[in-house]
Structures are given as C-alpha cells and as structure tokens.
Write a structure and sequence with these properties.
Number of strands: 8
CATH topology: Rossmann fold
Number of helices: 8
Structural class: alpha/beta
CATH superfamily: HUPs
Distance between the termini: 45 Å
Order of helices and strands: EHEHEHEHHEHEEEHH
Number of domains: 1
Radius of gyration: 18 Å
CATH class: Alpha Beta
Largest sheet: 8 strands, mixed
C-alpha cells in the first residue's frame, strides 16, 4: 500500500510556506509522496488576479524538483472548466496502478469554507483529510478553537463526528477521518510576494530562487 497526499491550491505563486508545510505533513504521516495540484480556474478567486495556470505549474515544478517525495500534477490544467476538488480526487482514485491511500491536504481556513465546494459532502466519504493548523490550535486542548472544527463538522458535514485524542483526528461511523496537524508558522504568503514584486522589491528567501527568477523573467505580478 502506498500513501499519497494531494495538495491543491492556486499557488499564486508557490512559496516556502507551502513547501515547508507539505514537508512536515509528508514526514509526520510517512507519505510516499505529496502531489501539488495547481488549479486551472479557481472557483473562489477572480481570474484576473491569478497568473496563468501554465506559469503557476512551471513554478511548482521548479520548486519541488530537488525533493524526490514532491511532485506536481497538471490534471486540473488538462480539464476544462472550473477546477473542482471532487473531480480531482475521483481522477486520482480511478487512475492508480497500485493500491494507494490518498489524503487530501487542506489548510484550516480553506477547510472551514469547504461547505461552499462542489459535492463537498461526497468528499468526506471518498478520502481522509489532513487539516493543517497553526501553533496554538492544538485540538487536544480545551480552548475554543478545537470546538470550531467539531461544531463545523457536525453542523455542516454530518452529525456524529467525535475527536480521537489518540489519533489526533475526528472520526465518524461512515465518513473518512479528518486528521489535525499543526505545521510551523511562517509569515509568508502569495499575496505578500505579489505585492513586493509589484513594487519592484526582492522576494529572496520567500520563494525558491528558481521561482523568483522565473517571476522576474516572465514579468509576473507587475
């Protein structure tokens, strides 16, 4: 059995925050690989603010080229129309040459908006989630934050979720588990990189040097 993480997003552009978080998830869950999947047409973003999908794909390809457990897929670029996660998950599950357990890797903010995604309830029956949280959101604590996930799952997804402290995940009788994993906080964002680039300032050490050079040569985010 292989274990593979599916990490989708706009990646506009990819940066060290994405890479470090994916590395920590890959290491913690002993994943054989993490596949970065850039969205061709993100359903929740204005297309005018997003770089061309082929450019975003190329930046990811360069960013992950030195780490053998990372890869990038153009599955959403090859599919017409908006990029829906449900279609991507079904694609990977249907096109596997050997037994693979896929995990859907999602940041907490995006996860709390999953009830706006296409066929979102079906996703929970198809694939386990790894929800990335930031320091201070430990679900084994008794603060307010853990209740946000618990309440969200039971109100928006399906009644019957409970938290397993032993496995650090929310479990359900019929749905796949939802794991919670704390990743390092890094004050890096795609928005910050676009803003700096637009002002002609360096983005050195925010994204790999190959990506920085690609952005400069292509005149992106100007």
């Amino acid at each position: 059995m292989k274990y593979r993480g599916l990490f989708g997003g706009t990646f506009n552009p990819v940066h060290f925050g994405h890479l470090r978080s994916a590395y920590e998830v890959q290491t913690k869950f002993s994943l054989d690989s993490v596949c970065f999947i850039p969205a061709a047409i993100p359903p929740h973003k204005q297309p005018s603010s997003v770089a061309d999908a082929k450019d975003r794909f190329e930046m990811i390809r360069m960013a992950v080229s030195d780490y053998p457990k990372f890869c990038v897929s153009d599955v959403e670029l090859r599919r017409s129309g908006p990029s829906y996660t449900i279609d991507t998950v079904k694609h990977f599950k249907a096109n596997r040459a050997e037994p693979v357990l896929f995990y859907l890797i999602v940041g907490l903010d995006a996860f709390l908006e999953i009830n706006t995604w296409k066929s979102f309830k079906e996703l929970f029956s198809l694939v386990p989630f790894i929800v990335m949280t930031r320091p201070g959101l430990n679900c084994q604590d008794s603060g307010d934050k853990p209740d946000v996930l618990y309440d969200f799952l039971n109100s928006e997804i399906s009644v019957g979720y409970s938290f397993s402290s032993q496995d650090s995940c929310y479990i359900h009788d019929t749905n796949q588990p939802v794991y919670v994993f704390e990743v390092s906080r890094m004050d890096i964002s795609s928005t910050k990189i676009r803003e700096l680039t637009g002002k002609g300032e360096s983005v050195c050490f925010l994204t790999p040097a190959k990506v920085e050079l690609f952005i400069k040569n292509r005149g992106l985010y100007r």
